[in-house]
Each structure stands twice: as C-alpha cells, then as structure tokens.
Amino acid sequence: MKKWFVIMLIIALLAFGTVIGFNWFVQQKTKEAIANMPEAVYPVTAVKLEPTNWQPTIDAIGFIEPNQGVTIANEVSGIVTSIDFENGAQVQQGDMLIQLDSEVQKANLKAQQVQLPAMKADYERLLRLYKQKSVSQQDLDNAQAKYMAMQADIASLEATINQRQIEAPFSGSLGIRSVNLGQYLQVGTNIVRLEDTSSMKLRFTVPQTQLSRIAVGQPVHIYVDAYPQDVFTGQIAAIEPAVFYQSGLIQVQARIPNADGKLRSGMFAKAAIILPELTNQLVVPQTAINFALYGNTIYIIDTQEKDGKVEKRVKQVNVNVVERNGNNALITGDLKAGDEIVTSGLVRLSNHSLVKVTENDAMKLPAQMPAL
Question: What's the N-to-C CA distance of the chain in angstroms?
Fold first, then answer.
C-alpha cells in the first residue's frame, strides 16, 4: 500500500512538472519573439506650423426682418368695392390699395356741406348785429356753436370716408391678397402684407460676456441657407440697453443692404461679428487635435538619428483651443513655427510612437468620376 502511494505521487509530480515546464517554455519563446519583433511604425499625415493671420468672430444665429413690414387691415367694416393693386406689386407711399363701400357716408357729407354756407352766413349776420348791439350774446353763441358743430360733423364724415380708402403707409412690395371684390370685411381683417425690403435687419443675441467686444457700426457677415455661396455684409445698428436677466443674453440688431432683393423676412440666418484681425497666430486643422476631458493635445513629430538611421517619433503636447472656424482652430501652447504636427492617424498613437509621414490624397477629387 505504501509503495503504491509513492508511485502515484511520483506520477502526479511528473505530470504537473511537465505542464509547468511546457508553459514556462512557451512564455520564454513568446518573450523572445516579442523582443525580436520590429517596432510598429504608424502611418500619419502631417503639416508644418506656419504663422498666419486669424480673423476672430463672434458667431450667432437669428432671423431676417424687413426694414418695415405690416399686414394691411381695415379700421371699419364694409363691403369691398375696389381692389387697386396686383399681387406682388411694388407700390409707393400713398398708393390706393382697396376701397370699401362709402356711399352712405358720402351722401351724409354732401347734405352737411350744403347746409354749411347757410349756417356760416347766419353766424356772420348775427356777429354784425351783435356789434351793433341788436342781438344778445346768447343768440351769437348759439349760432357760432351750430356753425362749429357742422364743421366738426363734416370733418368726421371725411375721416370716415378716408378710413374706407386704404392706402399704402410706405413704399414697398405687396404680398398675396386675402380678400376678394364684394366681400364683407369685419374690422381688423387681414388684407395683404406690405414690406419694405430695400434694406433688411437681423435680430440676434450674444452672451453678455461678449458685450465689451461689440459696438454700433461693427461689420457683420451674414449667411443664409438659400444662398450658401453668398456672404451678405452688414453693420450693427443697435444694441439693446438691457441684458435679459433669465438667460444673460443681450439682443443686437444689424442692418443689411438688400439692393438685389435676395433676402426675405423670416429667413434663418447665421451671423459672424467681425473682430480685429490677429497676426502671427498658430492655426491647425481640427483633425490634429485630440479632444479629451482632461485636456486637448496634439502630436509633434520629432526627427532623430539612431544607429545611422533617421526615424520620426511623436511627442504629445498640451494645447489650448482659443477659437474654431470651420475646419481650423486657433491654438496656444508649447509650440513654435516650423514644428511638424500630425493631422490624421492619431487614434493609435501614444507618446514616443514611431511614425511614417505619408501623403494624404483622400480628400482630393478625381479628375474623372468613375463609371458605374
């Protein structure tokens, strides 16, 4: 029994020793293979830093408004007897737009006007008699009151007739009318839209922290989706005197020339307030920046000579992104002109990684589109 136990123990030790020895052998061979493997070389694209000018802006969004705009409506009710404009027409201030039925008012006006000369003559006769002390002051006052009341009635009727003749309050472009001939209009019925689009306004908001950087007369570039290739130039015309306390924003209005008539009210627009230009700045593509919660970094390529061979390694540098504009970003940090920075291929890199700079033609358009 004792001999059998010793034999089994020896067999178990040999089995475990064989497994442990094999694993140790595999680990050693793996270490040797890794040690003899060449260092990975990562392909990247790069660009050299060159001092350039940077145009800082304050970006905002808003809506286009006309210089003047109003929806024409009637002050009194009545039936439409005449429409004196065409849809979309250009009108001048004072042009007749629409007329409501005013026959009753004109008849009453004529009746009052017929009686006015007699009342005036009666008043003037009593005035002469009063000077001769032939009539009393009361008789003269009654005649004067009747005469002045008749004048007031005539003025009231003329004003009522004028209210039924609706004119353009200013020059501009008409829209599409909402009424028809013979239609009965209640008070305040919308008739047609009139807008003065000779110049337009853009109303937008900026944070109160930017208030010290803006002023009346400052140039503004405006972009609208309808004309993506066009840049409309305007100026700040007014700045709201009060900051909206709930949001900390201040309202700004810019005036935009619109001689070609491209801008329309209600358009969504992007505004860029132009600030003084900065010179000798370091600007990099945004693809060169590794954005992270703990800080933004870029990789600088350092060329070294080792064992008679030239190799390129990267060094990670912290940067501060001051502003962004399109695909570019203005940065500051431990950088200088002439440094070569990585612009793509950052994902696999770490500090001191070995890299190879390659040409990047992925964004170049082919001379001829491939046939399907």
Answer: 85
Give the residue extent of every domain in the chain: 41-54+278-357, 58-66+194-274, 102-163
pLDDT of 175-228, one tens digit each? Answer: 999 999 999 999 989 999 999 988 999 999 999 999 999 999 999 999 999 998
> Using CA atoms, how far apart are residues 342 and 47, in angstroms rounded to an integer?
7
Fold of 41-54+278-357: 2.40.420
DSSP string, 1-56: -HHHHHHHHHHHHHHHHHHHHHHHHHHHHHHHHHHHSPPPEEEEEEEE---EEE--
Tens digit of each residue's pLDDT (9 = 90 or more) over 340-368 = 888 888 888 888 888 888 876 554 555 56
d(CA 56, CA 62): 19
Between the alpha carbon of residue 54 and those of residues 275, 276, 278, 330, 339, the distances in Å are: 10, 9, 5, 8, 19
d(CA 90, CA 73): 18
Rounded Cα–Cα distance for residues 193 and 346 (Å): 56
Question: What is the pTM (predicted TM-score) of this model?
Answer: 0.67
